[in-house]
Amino acid sequence: MADAAQRLKSLIEQVLGAPLPVRIRAWDGSQAGPPDAPVMVVHHRRALRRLLFKPGELGLARAWVAGELDVEGDLYTALDLLAGLIWERGEDARTLGEALRDPEVRAAVRGLVRLAGPPLPPAPPEEEMRRRRGHLHTRRTDKRAISHHYDVGNDFYEIVLGPSMVYSCAYWPDPDATLETAQRDKLELVCRKLALTPGQRLLDVGCGWGSMAIHAAREHGVSVVGITLSQEQAAYARKRAADEGLTDRIEIRVQDYRDVRDGPYDAISSIGMAEHVGADRYLEYAQNLYGLLAPGGRLLNHQIARRPQRDESAYDVDEFIDAYVFPDGELQPVGTTVALLERAGFEVRDVESIREHYAHTLRRWVANLEAGWARAVQLTSPGRARVWRLYMAASALSFERNRIGVNQVLAVKTPESGASGMPLRARTWN
């Protein structure tokens, strides 16, 4: 009798102590759960072995990337329902260890072991970042992590990001605007906050595919140095600058931010880069940028933030994102970012939260990926495309539900005279 789905449903509900909000369809054709809910499809019993050997998010992620686990129906709805059950159960929810003290749960787990088949653990999908021992956020490890994330192929990113080739939160004039319009408005917002004028020098830290450098040079007449650790990004950005006729005003380097020595700059933009820096290195990052600015120079730091925790020492990096998306990436509360920038010497003059804007952006990227799915798979792999679809859809929900946010922090290297150069009513860029 085909009953794998019912057995899985019973086990999950026993372990989590709550009813399963999605339907399950197992490899034997059996189904269980609410009839009108999104369907979690377990294509192969190998997915169970992944969960047995790596319980929790990483086991689920491996099964998803390998194509052994899938969702039918609206992905956003399914993720939202599962997030409330698995990832956001609160501090009072019982742990797996506590659940296993229950004899009925232990019996169900033994049944799951039999259901899962051969006992050997499956190898992780090839898309998973292979870990090496050593310190985080050295020049070598940062370069390797950036390469894992960004050197997927420029053609792949063209599918996801669209013509703007901007991989950070757009700034939407309204929800119905095009992604290209919203990204242009974001770049212009950054330039206006930095008060760029012709002849100034701008350092763009984490320059990506050159969109900020090109916009600032073309629209505001500045000279730009863009730095990235990705060889593929740098080559793409240089070609775009050449095609725009801006090679006399744009220099793209493959360079670590710690190795930039040719200040002073009049302004620095750091858009979606600081998440890679790491908590232990953040003050160093801020001090380096402070040292590269001329007196009165401005920094625009555009960075994703997480909600603060009651016990900050208990913060753990998301396992799925660390293994498959942003290796060694770390998020911190916006208050921590502001405090560290000020410790480095900056005067923080404005903090703007644009959290809802990132949700809109991510949903557009997911739609782009889904529309170009066959080509994306051809360019990378089925697993890589699945990583990006899950990561971006889950992130969109996280921004919508205020689990994470994104902020633009404007800071000034204010001289001893106290003359910041800021207008009395700073929000003139709106």
Structure in words:
This protein has helices at residues 4-16, 46-53, 57-65, 75-87, 96-99, 103-116, 139-150, 154-161, 179-194, 211-220, 231-243, 282-292, 319-324, 334-343, 355-371, 373-379, 382-400, and strands spanning 23-25, 31-32, 39-42, 69-72, 201-205, 223-228, 250-254, 265-271, 293-306, 347-353, 404-412. By secondary structure, the protein is an alpha/beta fold. The strands form two sheets. It has a seven-stranded mixed β-sheet with strand order 7-6-5-8-9-11-10. Helix 2 runs antiparallel to helix 3 (57-65).
Write a brief caption for the model.
The chain is 44% helix and 15% strand. It is α/β, with parallel strands linked by helices.
Count of beta strands = 11
Query: If you compute it from the alpha carbons, what radius of gyration comes out, rounded to the nearest whole angstrom?
Result: 24 Å
**Separation, N- and C-terminal Cα atoms:** 65 Å
Strand order of the largest sheet: 7-6-5-8-9-11-10
Number of helical runs? 17
Instruction: Give the biggest sheet.
Output: 7 strands, mixed
% residues in beta strands: 15-25%
The unreliable regions are 89-94
Shape: elongated
The ordered string of helix (H) and strand (E) elements is HEEEHHEHHHHHHEHEHEEHEHHEHHHE
Decide which structural class fits the backbone. Answer: alpha/beta
pLDDT averaged residue by residue = 89
User: Roughly what percent helix?
Assistant: 40-55%
